[in-house]
């Protein structure tokens, strides 16, 4: 079989277009940018990992029950949703560098309020401010990584492994502060980390737009589409966006509920002592490892099959935690639940980058993450409400039911690219 010269030239161009022919400086610049975004995700994990060990102490200090203390999840969710909506409005007006720096600054304010041991209403409001900062940073960081041309899957895994690292580290510190008279000083450590994040983002990105950042490491700017107002309309009309948002809602609900309530479950049901706070570290440590170690499994199985397999394994492990009357056995099972839950969020973000138009990606991921964050409020709050009536032992059946919902929601998420829509 023969091929004419024109076709040979066309094939050569197609093959070389996938090669990374950038200079070492450009590759190094991209790595620095991705590393700066990882610190922001580390703080997200730090924030979520801090709550579980401190939750019993917060109840004791403010004299509130399961339902009232769960308001911190509700207000955090409201903040994240507000951040996601504001992000869609601000993306074309302020640009990547300014928005992500604003989100980081809001975190500093929130942690400063929490560290002072302020009255409960102010303490709860700080979670809303923090959530808004998380929403702004999360939308920009995920869209930035999902839009990368080279090895975006691995970089997305590392971005969210940084979340797991923060959530692993926080309970180790928070468990110690929970036993001190001024437990709220844990948030002074958070202030220090958040300030480092602000400085790093300012130094690395210098208020540049995403397109300006991409040009620094040799990647062409993403395609621009219609104006911001019609982008919002397109986002709200896209079925794929809403299917992914509902899946992320269920996933985030499960993740935050385990991280927030598993310590209370182990204390009240399994008879754990003060060291039970470290079980939360085990869960988030598994989450971090899953987002790195299972990258090759994701590629081998494919995104859709990987989610089905991981969810079924998590359901089986939660049944073990529910029925096996062993503190150590339950702690080990919870760590493996974290391992298999870990890859799911990065997979969902990469999948969004494949099936959604590039010019809608930042706003869409902001909406998916923001709407999905409702799970971080709804499921933990529902757990607190049910526990106030039936006890914390209701945690495991609720988690298993939510994981079943995740299977159904992932089934209806589109698998084909819709970039031309």
TrEMBL record:
Residues 33-417 form the Major facilitator superfamily (MFS) profile domain. It is found in: Endomembrane system. Keywords: Membrane, Transmembrane, Transmembrane helix, Transport. Its main location: membrane. GO terms for cellular component: endomembrane system; membrane. It comes from the Eukaryota. InterPro entries: MFS, MFS_dom, MFS_trans_sf, MFS_Transporter. This is Major facilitator superfamily (MFS) profile domain-containing protein. It comes from Agaricus bisporus var. burnettii (strain JB137-S8 / ATCC MYA-4627 / FGSC 10392) (White button mushroom).
């Amino acid at each position: 079989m023969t091929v004419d010269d024109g076709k040979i030239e066309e094939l050569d161009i197609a093959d070389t277009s996938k090669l990374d022919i950038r200079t070492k400086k450009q590759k190094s610049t991209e790595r620095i940018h991705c590393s700066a975004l990882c610190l922001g995700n580390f703080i997200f994990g730090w924030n979520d990992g801090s709550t579980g060990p401190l939750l019993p102490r917060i109840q004791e200090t403010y004299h509130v029950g399961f339902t009232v203390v769960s308001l911190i999840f509700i207000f955090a969710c409201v903040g994240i949703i507000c951040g996601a909506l504001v992000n869609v409005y601000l993306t074309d007006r302020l640009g990547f560098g300014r928005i992500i720096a604003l989100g980081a600054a809001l975190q500093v304010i929130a942690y400063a309020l929490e560290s002072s041991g302020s009255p409960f209403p102010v303490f709860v409001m700080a979670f809303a401010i923090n959530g808004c900062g998380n929403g702004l940073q999360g939308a920009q960081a995920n869209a930035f990584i999902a839009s990368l041309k080279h090895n975006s899957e691995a970089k997305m895994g590392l971005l969210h492994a940084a979340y797991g690292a923060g959530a692993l580290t926080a309970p180790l510190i928070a468990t110690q502060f929970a036993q001190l008279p001024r437990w709220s000083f844990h948030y002074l450590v958070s202030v220090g980390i958040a300030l480092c994040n602000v400085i790093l983002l300012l130094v690395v990105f210098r208020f540049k737009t995403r397109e300006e950042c991409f040009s620094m490491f040799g990647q062409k700017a993403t395609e621009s589409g219609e104006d911001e107002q019609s982008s919002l309309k397109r986002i709200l009309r896209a079925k794929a966006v809403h299917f992914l948002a509902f899946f992320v809602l269920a996933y985030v609900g499960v993740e935050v509920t385990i991280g927030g309530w598993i310590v209370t479950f182990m204390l009240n049901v399994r008879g754990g002592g003060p060291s039970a706070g470290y079980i939360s570290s085990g869960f988030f440590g598994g989450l971090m490892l899953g987002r790195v170690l299972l990258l090759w499994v994701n590629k081998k199985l494919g995104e859709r099959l990987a989610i089905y397999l991981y969810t079924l394994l998590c359901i089986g492990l939660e049944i073990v935690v529910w029925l096996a009357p062993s503190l150590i056995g339950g702690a080990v099972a919870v760590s493996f639940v974290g391992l298999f839950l870990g890859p799911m969020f990065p997979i969902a973000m990469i999948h969004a980058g494949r099936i959604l138009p590039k010019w809608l990606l930042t706003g869409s991921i902001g909406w998916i993450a923001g709407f999905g964050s409702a799970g971080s409020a709804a499921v933990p709050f529902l757990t607190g409400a049910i526990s106030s009536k039936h006890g914390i032992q209701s945690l495991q059946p609720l988690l298993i039911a939510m994981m079943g919902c995740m299977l159904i929601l992932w089934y209806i998420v589109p698998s084909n690219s819709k970039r031309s829509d």
